[in-house]
């Protein structure tokens, strides 16, 4: 039996507050303390005012009423807010599905230029990415979309004939960069980047060329012993790869997002923190890793003293 999806809760000003379960949502609706804000995804809106100090959100997440948003055909502006590239499927016709890849950048796109409006509206895959916790994609209004690129044009020094930030030029430059990246990925040959195996075959099967017969097994032995402490947490490796020097500044994961993601990883080792200090890029992130290393070292010293005293 599948678990019911969490219910989104917004305040009276339509700001995201938190998630709750279906039972609590029904209780609020029955007591007339909230009203239905959206049915797809299901969201409720509190009828009372909520102070800023009461808002418990991990990040700003605008919540749209999708029923109203997709009522009339219009351009759909989408921003990838995940820490990775996101793929999505759109139903173009019965039995025909179109896939689309949102690159790992914060630059929003006009999705209507690539996918028909009816396919965007009918895609449950798309809506799940919008309403998941935390969201992977978010919808922007046209004003928010243009404001993003006006700010980007201002930082890049792109101006129109009147000397104002040229949002259209920033949009064209971003789209050209996205197209070049997609073309390069298609042209690059796929190479085997898998690490060397840590085991080697010591006894093969009795069949031709060392093949195994039914019931036979090859015998293997480890080439070298690898300690668990020598292995860096894969999540740490992935996050540090998002802030490498080779990544353009506008595509690099922000320091705040990186630090939040690192703090959510449980039980990091001294080697993990050392890797963050070496490859974390941002001074705030490296400083945090150094502090955690000191704390971990103090705990280890206390354990050694306790074991010695006993």
Question: What does this molecule look like?
Answer:
- The structure is a single chain.
- The chain is α+β, with helices and mostly antiparallel strands and 310 residues long.
- It folds into three domains: 7-54; 66-185, no CATH class; 230-299, no CATH class.
- Helix content is 38%, strand content 17%.
- The protein contains ten helices and eleven strands.
- The protein has helices at residues 22-30, 66-69, 117-122, 124-131, 142-156, 167-187, 234-241, 255-263, 270-279, 283-309; strands spanning 7-10, 16-20, 34-39, 42-46, 77-80, 86-93, 96-102, 109-110, 137-140, 199-203, 219-222.
- The strands form four sheets. Strands 2-1-4-3 form a four-stranded mixed sheet, with helices on one face.
- A hairpin with a 2-residue loop joins β6 (86-93) and β7.
- α9 runs antiparallel to α10.
- The two termini are 51 Å apart.
């Amino acid at each position: 039996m599948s678990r019911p999806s969490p219910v989104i809760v917004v305040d009276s000003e339509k700001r995201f507050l938190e998630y709750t379960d279906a039972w609590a949502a029904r209780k609020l609706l029955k007591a007339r303390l909230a009203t239905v804000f959206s049915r797809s995804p299901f969201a409720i809106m509190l009828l009372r005012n909520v102070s800023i100090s009461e808002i418990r959100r991990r990040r700003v997440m605008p919540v749209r009423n999708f029923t109203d948003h997709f009522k009339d055909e219009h351009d759909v502006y989408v921003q990838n807010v995940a820490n990775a590239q996101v793929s999505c499927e759109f139903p173009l016709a019965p039995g025909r599905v179109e896939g689309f890849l949102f690159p790992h950048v914060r630059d929003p796109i006009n999705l209507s230029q690539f996918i028909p409006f009816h396919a965007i509206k009918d895609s449950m895959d798309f809506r799940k990415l919008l309403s998941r916790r935390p969201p992977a994609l978010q919808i922007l209004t046209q004003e928010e979309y243009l404001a993003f690129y006006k700010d980007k044009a201002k930082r890049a020094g792109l101006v129109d004939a009147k000397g104002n930030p040229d949002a259209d030029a920033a949009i064209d430059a971003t789209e050209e960069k996205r197209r070049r990246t997609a073309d390069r990925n298609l042209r690059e040959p796929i190479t085997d980047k898998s690490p060397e195996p840590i085991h080697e075959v010591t006894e093969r099967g009795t069949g031709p060329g060392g093949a195994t017969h039914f019931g036979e097994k090859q015998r293997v032995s480890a080439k070298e012993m690898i300690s668990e402490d020598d292995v860096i947490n894969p999540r740490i490796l992935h996050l540090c790869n998002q802030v490498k020097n080779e990544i353009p500044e506008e595509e690099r994961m922000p320091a705040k997002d990186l630090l939040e993601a690192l703090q959510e990883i449980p039980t990091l080792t001294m080697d993990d923190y050392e890797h963050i200090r070496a490859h974390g890029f941002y001074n705030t992130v490296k400083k945090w890793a150094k502090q955690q290393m000191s704390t971990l070292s103090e705990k280890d010293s206390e354990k050694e003293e306790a074991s010695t005293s006993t």
